Amino acid sequence: VPTAVECGTVTVKSEVAAMKRVMQRANTINIKVFAALVGLVILSGVYSALRNPNGITDEWWSSFAQNFSTEMLGAIVAFWLIELVVGSYRESEAKRKQLIIQMRSRDHATALNAVDELRGHGWLSDGSLQGENFVGAKLQGAYLVGANLQGASFWFANLGETVMENTNFQDAMLSSANLQDAYLTYANLQGATLSGANMEGVKLREANLQNATLNSVNLQGANLMVANLRDADLRVANLRGADLTEANLQGANLLDADFDETTTLPDRTLWTPDTNMTRFTDPNTRTSGARMTG
Predict the structure, then answer these.
(1) Full-model pTM
(2) Nearest to 114 by CA among 131, 100, 97, 125
(3) To 5 degrees, how large is the angle CA 114–CA 116–CA 120?
(4) For 268, which DSSP code?
(5) Which element (helix H / strand E) includes 134?
(6) pLDDT tens digits for 225-273?
(7) Are 115 and 134 in contact (CB under 8 A)?
(8) Residue range 205-220, pLDDT digits in tens
């Protein structure tokens, strides 16, 4: 069974090949369009000759040559304008796709340069990265503020110390990713899957984690102040030393979640072995397994 990294490498190679095929088809289409324009000019000349009651005379040839040159000039100008618009768009699309491929490069410098270029073109926030595959990407320390990464895949990616304030990770896949000390203040992680991710020391102040899957996540020392964790799955999560001041835990599943006496609860009190977490979730949530270790 191929690993996630191997799958990501195969995807990159296949997309590069697909881009080359698209460019080849585009060049072929350009030739066909120009040939069609020339053909139309010639056909109009033949039609004119057939309609001329005097047949093909010197006067007709003179008129035809004049009209032909005028129409050819018009055809060339029209083709040039179309190519200018379409070609510019095509080049822009090719550049965007190439930068997305580079962003998930295993080379850290290449990935960071791609992020900077994508930001410069406005492609980080316009939806261009939605649903893209960044499995195993080396993006530690990247500046992704305000990026729209909805539905994107970041399995096993390294996002440690990455600045992602106001970033949209809704429904994104971040399982087993490294997010240690990342900045996710005000980020939207609603419905995101982060199973097994390392989020030690992450800054999630006022982040939206509603319905997020956070089972077995390491949130030790994380800042979750005023975070929305409504209906989040926090089973077996490590919350030792985490700051949950004013966080919304209503409906959250805290089965076997790991607290210690440095964990700050939503009411600003510190967790103790006698703490009944149902006062923060709801009466039907199973929290009897929440424990202290160490």
Answers:
(1) 0.72
(2) 100
(3) 115
(4) S
(5) none
(6) 999 999 999 999 999 999 999 999 999 999 999 999 999 999 999 999 9
(7) no
(8) 999 999 999 999 999 9
